[in-house]
Design a protein that fits this description.
The structure holds two protein chains of two kinds.
Chain A lengths: L1 H17 L10 E3 L2 E5 L3 H5 L4 E9 L7 E9 L2 H9 L5 E3 L5 E5 H6 L2 H9 L8 E5 L3 H6 L8 H14 L8 H9 L6 E7 L4 E10 L2 E6 L4 H8 L7 E4 L9 E19 L2 E17 L8 H28 L7 H7 L3 H6 L2 H4 L4 E12 L5
Parallel strand pairs in A: 1-5, 2-6, 6-7, 7-8, 13-14
Antiparallel strand pairs in A: 2-3, 3-4, 8-9, 9-10, 11-12, 12-13
Chain B lengths: L26 H7 L6 E6 L4 E6 L5 H13 L6 H5 L5 E2 L3 H9 L2 E6 L2 E6 L28 H11 L5 E8 L5 E8 L5 H12 L9 H7 L13 E2 L2 H9 L3 E5 L5 E4 L11 H4 L2 H30 L7 H11 L6 H21 L2 H21 L5 H16 L3 H21 L1 H17 L1 E2 L2 E2 L44
Antiparallel strand pairs in B: 1-2, 2-4, 3-5, 4-5, 6-7, 7-9, 8-10, 9-10, 11-12
The chains are: A alpha/beta, B alpha+beta.
Chain lengths: 373, 489
């Protein structure tokens, strides 16, 4: 009897609960892979439509060919966009496979935290969705078809993923962005994408104050930015020694392992002196100068030249950041750690930051320089 | 009436006719008893006034010549009493006993109103061959056959110890099948021996045909899907169970030898785990446990993921999966049940057919159904992979009975997964675990050594640790003699 009861209860529970979970059968779904947010054109904005949303939905094709559906709508809010998109497609759109979210630069200047917020709240959206800024319009970037790259969403995702492995750009996810946004000791950053005639390219790093885009790091300086921002285990940079006095030649400094330390000394209540100590190890893959890398003294010289280059570039970058009042490398966190929380609360960091003195000390170690002497 | 109730092996009165009063045996009465049995042989030697009654096909020609033909044909009438005084000729006072002896292959000797029996039983049996259901690559290849005495001798050959004790019971009102209970004195816990013997004695049926059938009469939980006592055809497996403190039961007429008590995990170990280096043995054992999970859950996972949890699919698989699903006209649950049923049909058909035709089944199943079903758009090719790998995984489990039970559970999980997604799958698995933990085998927990936790046993259950680490007999045996080896590291 107990078995019978168990079976009946199970069947009943199953039958009754079967209606509860919404079935989402695979082939009836449209997976949003990338979303783009922009400010719409003037005319649209006059009608009260504040947002231009674009989505990328890859579709399966029985012939195995890649098909991509791109939908876009000018709407009042991102919720309205869902209704608008539903009207345009036969698939039920789901956002559980979202990988990328792109923001046009015009929107980024105003701030887009309320759009990130919806991503954080939806439980089906991963916190690992990548955030990036488009230098131009996200709508145009997503709507264009790139013949060599049939699936735009995947293309962008893999591009960002690969570039972040070599530290050319930071890997910024929804989680990272929100964390840095709510942390008062650091300002968020995001990679910038640019639409070229035939492809998409990474175009530096956007620096934010709160959620507003302020300034950017040029694409050729991104590794310097990475060196002062974090420890990492793999990177590559190219240095033109001719820029410095004395020597000539080009160095490709590769397999970079970076350790950085930030030391904060408080000179007065609102005067701080910050030293960023950097130790960078790596291999020289290419060197076109006249010095002999196998010679200890010469190698030391090249090391100090590279260190000098890093220090100068980093110094310029820090000046730029201070000028724009963006604390993108998180000096505020170290300042906060050097004092009590009540003192930190009293300190107006945003005011103080542009005035602190930041010095950068780099030490470069060339570990390998190849077979030739 | 509770279906899940533990069957109590009570001491009921035997059914059948009331006992006839026992009488002294006589020739006429014996012949009357075997009336119409034309295979009964009745020989007379008038010169010495001796009569023999026996079944010709039950007696062996060698022992018959030695015990009957030669001695009785070479003596005169007055020498008969002294000949019958030899110990092999046992005088019997009971007619019932006499009939039983004749049925057991004895020759009944009637002389001067007295009756003697001499056992010359030598039945026909097939030769000892390799087990087909439990084949191993390395290790002994002999296996039990249908004759209990040969099976006993196979065990005695391997355990040359006076501590190996054998008890004999009779089961089956009509068939009177012999059931031997074997244990090793001072290693086996006598509680288990008594319990198993009691259960065997209390069975009330007309016939027992196989060890796997007898097992179900002495089961703690006859309504469970899971077999509670492992049966084996392999002599080395049987002996290893014996030595680790289990009780064995040999059923005459069946090559399957029962061992008790057992844990669920015992069904996943195979003798060749011990014949290979321990790392390999460990790897294979872990493989079998993963096969268990694959068998019960892989197809169900496919169903739940494609019906409810598209978020779980890796990006690169998403489009191929959607593409192959997009041509299937059924929801994933019907698709999966359809294919699973087909696989079960194939398996059952393959088991019934002789090997030569069996190969055709493989081709029909593998190519025609597998390939064509995808092309016809009846199933998605990912499902074919899921179903095939769970079918293959089910054959990895060494015990056939266990693997069949597990395959049945799979269907329930698929249905649950189709209705409730991953939650249903987890609910189903939880129910299986709850059920398993309620089971007992000969009144000891079926989930030992997990529940109750006996962690030192794990090194011979989930892995196969090197022999120097396996110093003690399994705790489930409750052996009075726990140490089995004194090997140092």
């Amino acid at each position: 009897m107990r078995l019978l009861k168990a079976i009946v209860t199970l069947l009943l529970a199953g039958l009754l609960a079967a209606g509860c979970g919404q079935q989402r059968i695979l082939e009836k779904l449209g997976f949003i892979q990338a979303t783009g947010y922009d400010l719409p054109s003037e005319q649209e904005r006059e009608k009260g439509r504040e947002l231009l949303v674009t989505i990328n939905v890859p579709k399966a094709d029985p012939q195995g060919k890649m098909k991509l559906e791109t939908l876009s709508a000018s709407v009042k809010s991102s919720k309205e966009a869902r209704i608008e998109f539903a009207r345009q497609t036969e698939l039920s759109l789901v956002s559980g496979q979202l990988r990328n979210t792109l923001y046009g630069v015009s929107l980024a200047k105003i701030g887009f935290m309320n759009h990130i917020d919806t991503l954080v709240r939806d439980p089906s959206i991963s916190q690992l969705v990548k955030v990036s800024v488009v230098n131009g319009s996200a709508h145009d970037l997503l709507i264009k078809r790139y013949p060599e790259h049939p699936n735009t969403g995947q293309y962008v995702d893999r591009l960002l993923e690969k570039e972040s492995i070599s530290m050319a750009i930071p890997r910024i996810t929804v989680y990272d962005f929100t964390r840095d946004y709510y942390d008062d000791g650091i300002d968020p950053i995001a990679p910038i994408l640019k639409q070229n005639a035939k492809n998409i390219a990474v175009d530096g790093i956007a620096l934010f104050h709160n959620d507003q885009y302020k300034t950017r790091i040029e694409p050729d300086k991104t590794l310097i930015f990475a060196i002062i921002r974090q420890n990492f285990k793999y990177g590559e940079m190219s240095i033109n020694l001719a820029e410095d006095k004395g020597e000539e030649g080009q160095v490709i400094f590769s397999s970079v392992i970076n350790h950085r330390k930030i030391r904060v000394t408080r000179e007065q209540t609102d005067r701080f002196s910050v030293v960023i100590e950097i130790v960078t190890r790596g291999s020289v893959h290419e060197y076109t100068g006249n010095l002999k890398l196998s010679d200890d003294a010469d190698r030391k010289k090249v090391e100090s030249l590279i260190a000098g280059h890093i220090e100068r570039e980093a110094g310029d970058m820090l000046v730029l950041m201070q000028k724009n009042k963006v604390d993108s490398i998180g000096i505020g966190q170290y300042v906060r750690n050097s004092m009590s929380y009540s003192e930190w609360k009293k300190l107006n960091w945003e005011e103080v930051y542009p005035r602190i003195s930041i010095a950068c000390k780099a030490k470069v170690i060339i570990q390998d320089y190849g077979k030739f002497k | 009436m509770s279906l899940f109730k533990r069957v109590r092996h009570g001491k009921n009165k035997p059914i059948g006719q009331p006992d006839k009063p026992d009488v002294l045996p006589s020739l006429q009465q014996t012949l009357d008893e075997f009336k119409d049995c034309i295979d009964l042989v009745h020989r007379t030697m008038p010169e010495i006034q001796v009569e023999f009654v026996y079944f010709g096909h039950l007696v062996g020609s060698d022992p018959f010549t030695r015990e009957i033909a030669v001695p009785f044909s070479s003596i005169s009438a007055d020498e008969v009493p002294s000949l019958l005084a030899r110990t092999q000729y046992v005088e019997t006072q009971s007619a019932k006993h006499l009939i039983k002896e004749i049925l057991d292959g004895a020759v009944a000797i009637f002389y001067g109103g007295k009756c003697y029996v001499v056992n010359v039983y030598k039945p026909d049996n097939r030769s000892i061959e390799q087990s087909e259901t439990e084949a191993v690559i390395t290790g002994p290849h002999d296996s039990f056959i249908e004759t209990a005495e040969v099976n006993l001798s196979l065990i005695r050959q391997r355990v040359k110890s006076s501590h190996l004790k054998v008890m004999k019971y009779e089961v089956g009102e009509v068939t009177k099948t012999d059931v031997y209970v074997l244990y090793i004195d001072r290693i086996t816990n006598m509680g288990y021996v008594r319990e198993l013997s009691r259960r065997i004695q209390n069975i009330e049926i007309d016939a027992v045909h196989d060890g796997n059938m007898l097992v179900q009469y002495i089961d703690d939980h006859p309504n469970s899907v899971f077999p509670l006592f492992p049966t084996t055809e392999r002599t080395d497996a049987a002996v290893s169970k014996l030595v680790s403190g289990r009780v064995l039961a040999i059923v005459d007429g069946s090559p399957s030898v029962i061992s008790a008590p057992a844990s669920f995990f015992e069904f996943f170990s195979s003798p060749d785990d011990y014949y290979q280096r321990w790392m390999l043995g460990t790897a294979t054992r872990l493989l079998r446990f993963s096969a268990f999970i694959i068998t019960i859950a892989f197809t169900a996972l496919y169903v739940s993921v494609t019906t409810f949890h598209y978020e779980m699919i890796p990006e690169d698989l998403l489009l191929t999966l959607t593409e192959s699903r997009s041509r299937v006209p059924f929801p994933p649950i019907y698709e999966a049940l359809l294919l699973e049923t087909t696989i079960e049909l194939l398996r059952e058909a393959g088991a019934r057919l002789p090997t030569k035709i069996g190969q055709t089944i493989g081709i029909v199943g593998g190519i025609v159904i597998g390939q064509a079903a995808v092309q016809a758009g009846l199933t998605s090719n990912i499902l074919i992979i899921a179903v095939a790998s769970s079918a293959i995984a089910s054959f990895v489990i060494p015990s056939y009975v266990m693997s069949a039970s597990i395959r049945l559970i799979r269907f329930a999980l698929i249905i649950l997964a189709g209705m409730l997604g991953n939650m249903g799958l987890i609910m189903g698995m939880a129910l299986v675990v709850i059920h398993l933990s309620g089971l007992t085998s000969l009144q000891s927990s079926y989930l030992t050594p997990v529940a109750p936790g006996r962690f030192k046993d794990w090194r011979d259950v989930f892995i196969r640790a090197p022999f120097w680490m396996l110093k003690e007999r399994p705790t489930q045996s409750k052996s009075p003699n726990e140490m089995k080896n004194k090997m140092k590291e």
